[in-house]
Amino acid sequence: MTPAPGTTRRFRQVxxxxxxxxxxxxxxxxxxxDAEGLTDAELAxxxxxxxxxxxxxxxxxxxxxADYRVRIFTPGEELPFAGHPTLGxxxxxxxxxxxxxxxxxxxxxxxxxxxxxxxxxxxxxxFAAPPRSRPGPLAPxxxxxxxxxxxxxxxxxxxxxxxxNGPVFAVVRLGSAAQVLALRxxxxxxxxxxxxxxxEIGVVGDYPPGGAEADKAYDADKxxxxxxxxxxxxxxxxxxxxxxxxxNAAIAQWRRSAGEVPARxxxxxxxxxxxxGRIEVExxxxxxxxxxxxxxxxxxxxxx
Length: 304
Fold this sequence. Notes:
The protein is of the alpha+beta class.
């Protein structure tokens, strides 16, 4: 039965891509479980009110191939797909749905981009990365604008690529994770690019194997992080996203296709803004899986 407007609806707020043993280290997500009956304006208003990078709303699927349907809102717009909302929504559905959800090892999410598979291993969930809709290097003039906004020179960029699978990111690769963490971009220029250019900026830099940098050494055998990512997203209503699954998925596809990273590795994100996000990446030969830990922080109801 469809809940009437103004009724009490199940709600969860979860921490996605957090580091094991460090509470509240990932990216928070608000999930309204019983979203039937809400108008588009009500969905958008609640997302603005939570003021998180994303808020999701769970609905019955429109196809029997999916377990649930999700709509994903930032404070400023609706997205067809996003990474941490995918994992957080799946965890919320698994925790609040009926007995069908118990013991499942994989669920299928329906979203604006289509169907997305989500693998379940306890608190660790992973989604199969959707294909990039706009691969390829940045145009020279776009790269110049990105460098200006980040406050770096063209010589600092080792590689660049469009990373688009819903959100639109122009991504540059720097020489090290330390350079990524040291960035102090021009917020006004980032906002202008988001507004006029229609894209956000992602940055990636490697931790050196066996060496120490920014108080961290990378050892693949120990599961240490291979590189650091930052996502500057003024167009989504905040200056920097704590941990970004969609961006990491597209970067993984880019760097795996270039043979620059192993089949299994970890990524760090959020250190520059006081978080300790961790993304697990695995290429099984068919799909690239983007995974991380999801923990419920708040469980209750909201009146909408």
